[in-house]
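Milestone M4 deliverable, item 7.
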Amino acid sequence: MAKKSKGNRIQVILECTEHKDSGVPGMSRYMTYKNRKTTTERIELRKYNPYLKKVTVHKEIK
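Output delivered:
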């Protein structure tokens, strides 16, 4: 899932936390990069979910 790149930056996948409980088909996922040294914990961002048609919290998955 997470691709290794040169240096400290790694590619991570963000997945919607509200989508599983809604019962709507599909899955909202985004890909982004983070610095491994400065951000050791998992990322949590508010992103747009096109299936629910609103901004929701997306958390980094392993």
